[in-house]
Each structure stands twice: as structure tokens, then as C-alpha cells.
Amino acid sequence: MKQFPKRDTDKLAADLAEIVGTDNVRRREAEILTYARDATPMFWAKPQVVVFPQNTSHVSAIAAYATANEVPLIPRGSGTSLAAATVPIHGGIVMPMTRFTGVLSIDTAEQVAVVQPGVRTLDLSNAVEAVGLMYPPDPGSRHACTIGGNVATNAGGLRGLKYGVTGDYILGLEIVLPTGEIIRTGGTLKKDVAGYDLTHLIVGSEGTLA
């Protein structure tokens, strides 16, 4: 298991505040305890700092900083994981994506929606149903879990046997790599066969690649 160097929490918080602003960094005990666990029983570990990015550029800068300084970085959705996926067992930074909640567009002709990672699965389902469409994946935690988490885990649900799982409905992604590089994979076309299928390499990778 990788051993991370000791980190000064004051400096870590100050450095992150330079990226996202002081109001978007949390480090007090009462503020970070919420992010010390997810829905997994018995797993618990406090982060040093919780940081709330406001845009993709913030996510990119945080990822680049964490990599350069060997600080563990845990992106987090709603914390519904049952596999301790968002428990910061090495401390470091927890980065909730809760400010990214937009359903940016729904194209009824092409049957394609563009959404941000913090959108709740149930909210997306309701949004497309309102225009006569259906988003089939239905994880048991769909009332709380987010699309970003669904993509990371390739979540399914009871309808998975008939309709498939999250990865069957992802056409493209905007991805931030650990280096901070932002890349885009796939697109809005259902038939997009140019190059490697990086989109579905990322789906289900649980934060190990991006």
C-alpha cells in the first residue's frame, strides 16, 4: 500500500483556498466529519480538508495540485457507496461534486441529455420523463446517488436485466485526469467509432483513472 508523506493541514487548506476561494474550503472538525464516511458500515476516516470546486477549471487545478504534492484526492458524490469508495482512508482531500447539479440540455430528437456529475439520478429520470423520454438505470439509491457516481461504478438497478446499466447509456464524457489535463471522449452521436473507446474505459473505473 502506498505511503503518503505527512502533510501540513494549514498549508493544504491555504493552497486550496488560493484555487477555489476561502469560502469553498472546509477544515474544522464539525465541517469535515460528514465526509469521513459513506453508506458503508464500519468504515470511517477523516479527511484533512474538504474542498468544493465551482467549475471544471477548479477540478483540474485541484487534481494537478494533489498529484504534484502526493496528496490523496477523493472525489465524492452523495456518499451512497456501499464499498467505502469515498472514505478517505489516507486522509488528504475530499472533493464533493455537489455544486455540479445542472441538467444542461435534453435533445428530444436525438434522445441525448447533457448533465453535470452532481445531478441526482432520480432528478435526471424525472427531467427526461417530463419530455416523454426514459432514463432506464435505476440504482436502489437513485433518490440520492449522482450521475457521476453512477458512471464511476457503472451502476445498474432492478431494470438492468432488461435495459442494461449506466455504461450502456453513456455516449461521451468530459474527464479530468490526475495531472489536471481535461479531455473529452465520445460525443453526442450514437454511432461514434473513431479511435479507442475511452468513454467506456472510464465508466466503472471508480476514480482510478480520472
TrEMBL record:
InterPro entries per the UniProt record, alphabetical: FAD-bd_PCMH, FAD-bd_PCMH-like_sf, FAD-bd_PCMH_sub2, FAD-linked_OxidoTrans_Type4, Oxid_FAD_bind_N
Enzyme Commission number(s): 1.1.99.14
UniProt entry tagged with the keyword Kinase: no
Entry keywords, A to Z: Oxidoreductase
Family matches, as Gene3D superfamilies: 3.30.465.10
Example of a GO MF term: FAD binding
EC primary class: oxidoreductase
Annotated ranges, domain FAD-binding PCMH-type: 43-210
Cross-referenced Pfam families: FAD_binding_4 (PF01565)
PANTHER family: GLYCOLATE OXIDASE SUBUNIT GLCD (PTHR42934:SF2)
Protein name as annotated: Glycolate dehydrogenase, subunit GlcD
